[in-house]
Give the backbone structure.
Amino acid sequence: MFGAVAFTYGLLLTFVMSGASRNAKLSRPNPAMLSAIGYVLVGITSAASLLLFGYAGWSYLSAAAV
């Protein structure tokens, strides 16, 4: 299940980033939907990285206390 979600997320992220890069090359503004999805994906990535960093720190501290 996680593999399918990770694959879909990666595919969507690749589509958004390539679209934004193409628009920047052609000096065109990004559509509102592309910008919105880009912000959502950046938010999800940031939240996941913070949660994983917190979990790693918590695991380290709980293992050190034993």
Q: What stands out?
A: The chain has two helices and no strands. The radius of gyration is 17 Å.
